[in-house]
Write a structure and sequence with these properties.
It is a multi-pass membrane protein. This is Endoplasmic reticulum transmembrane protein. May play a role in anterograde transport of membrane proteins from the endoplasmic reticulum to the Golgi. It is found in: Endoplasmic reticulum membrane. The protein is an all-alpha fold. The chain has one domain. It is rod-shaped.
Length: 170
């Protein structure tokens, strides 16, 4: 709670000092005391107002300093916000990359399965080709043998085929 009694006593002593000035007595002869009192009261109030203004002018200075400090903190806050934004962007980018990785993994699995099918088909085809080659070599040998036998029969003029088989066995 504000102490008005202390202010009244201070003001009372101030007024006593003002009225004890020797200049007052010299001026009092020329002017009316109430009029002079009002003028002095206004001067004192004016000086008191100036004193109060000086007292609270530090408040304005403090306000300016705090505003300046806040403005100095804005770049730091801006950097923090940029860092969080970059981190968020990285997170979104990482999520997109993770999704792409999953898609690529699925695609590689599909391609591996397809490659396995194709390699199995290729091995079957190579096995069939080797089997056909062996079979064709066997047929070629048999054909060559039959051709030689046919040639011998035509040249030799041997009897029947049965006789030739008998000769072979001998």
């Amino acid at each position: 709670m504000f102490n008005f009694w202390g202010i009244n006593t201070v003001l009372f002593y101030r007024w006593q000092k003002i009225f004890m000035i020797p200049v007052w007595n010299k001026i009092a002869n020329y002017w009316n005391k109430p009029f002079l009192t009002i003028i002095i009261l206004l001067i004192v109030l004016f000086l008191d107002a100036i004193r109060e203004m000086k007292k609270y002018s530090n408040y304005v200075l403090l306000t300016l300093i705090t505003q300046l400090a806040k403005e100095m903190g804005i770049p730091v806050e801006n950097e923090k916000l940029q860092q969080t934004l970059n981190e968020k962007g990285k997170c979104e980018n990482e999520q997109a990359l993770e999704e792409d990785n999953q898609k690529l993994r699925k695609e590689t699995e599909k391609l591996k399965a397809e490659l396995k099918k194709i390699s199995n088909a290729l091995s079957k085809a190579t096995n069939e080709v080797t089997a056909v080659k062996k079979q064709s070599e066997g047929l070629k040998r048999e054909y060559d043998r039959l051709m030689k036998e046919h040639e011998r029969l035509q040249v030799g003029g041997c009897g029947s085929l049965h006789e030739q088989n008998v000769l072979k066995l001998c």
